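Work Package 4 report. The design task specified in the project plan requires that, given a folded chain encoded as structure tokens, an amino acid be chosen for each position. We show below one input record used in the internal validation round.
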């Protein structure tokens, strides 16, 4: 691994340099964000987002939460520390004629006024930053009194099917591959326990907090290549973990994934891989 890749794996996604996120922005925009619309809409409904509301998306990526919010009629500001992610967001907003703007901004210190947004949210963004309590306090700070804060994150990692299928496929080709370290869980699972999520939202200054665990992420894929692109495009860690593999090994892994996808498919339909979600909402 390069020094940058080693730093990313050791310190977590958001602890890596911004270049690691810039590098996957196009893949995320193409292969990941479009599939987030349904679960984003479920979260926005739970947060009671209305047409005409002001909506802030924190650690927005290319707009998996922001674009559905704009389509519901909200006036949207999307923020992310990756300039490339924001470039993709702004391009989509312009192409679709949406009332939405993207700005490069660090989620731990939002350059925004107090008490400004009707709803502030984050989908698979603030779930993985190292100082999540600080980022949540910032989300609360910029939300209007009586406004809502929304956090969507993964639940139990043991039930994250796509991740386990990917690791199994790599291990079939590279038997010594260990996958993500088990003694230091990935940051994206720091609020996998719904009770932990609820307490963090309360500690950030919210009241009437609820954490809904009834939804799942449902990833539909027809080929191993599609699953590979989704995993590698979703965050820098998987790409870093397989960075030393040869082109031949990567091709063999995608071939194994093809077989695993076929085994999970039914009646010529796609294979559907699920992951549990925690959707937390509280009122300022």
């Amino acid at each position: 691994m390069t020094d940058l890749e080693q730093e990313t794996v050791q310190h977590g996604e958001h602890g890596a340099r911004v270049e690691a996120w810039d590098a996957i922005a196009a893949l995320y925009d193409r292969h990941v964000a479009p599939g987030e619309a349904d679960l984003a809409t479920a979260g926005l409904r739970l947060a009671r987002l209305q047409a005409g509301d002001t909506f802030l998306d924190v650690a927005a990526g290319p707009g998996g939460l922001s674009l559905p919010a704009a389509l519901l009629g909200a006036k949207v500001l999307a923020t992310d520390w990756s300039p490339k992610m924001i470039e993709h967001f702004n391009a989509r907003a312009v192409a679709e004629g949406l009332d939405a703007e993207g700005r490069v901004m660090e989620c731990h210190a939002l350059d925004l006024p107090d008490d400004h947004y009707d709803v502030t949210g984050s989908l698979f963004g603030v779930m993985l930053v190292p100082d999540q309590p600080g980022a949540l306090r910032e989300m609360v700070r910029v939300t209007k009194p009586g406004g809502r804060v929304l956090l969507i994150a993964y639940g139990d990692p043991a039930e994250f099917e796509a991740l386990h299928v990917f690791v199994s496929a790599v291990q079939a080709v590279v038997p010594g591959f260990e996958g993500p370290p088990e003694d230091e869980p990935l940051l994206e699972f720091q609020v996998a326990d719904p009770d932990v999520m609820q307490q963090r939202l309360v500690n950030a200054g919210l009241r009437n907090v609820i954490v809904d665990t009834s939804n799942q992420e449902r990833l539909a894929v027809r080929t191993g290549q599609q699953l590979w692109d989704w995993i590698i495009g979703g965050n820098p860690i998987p790409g870093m973990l397989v960075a030393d593999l040869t082109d031949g090994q990567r091709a063999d892994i995608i071939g194994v994934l093809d077989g695993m996808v076929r085994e999970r498919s039914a009646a010529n339909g796609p294979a559907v891989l699920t992951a549990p979600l925690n959707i937390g909402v509280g009122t300022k």
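The chain has one domain: 3-283. Validation will be extended to a larger panel in the next phase.
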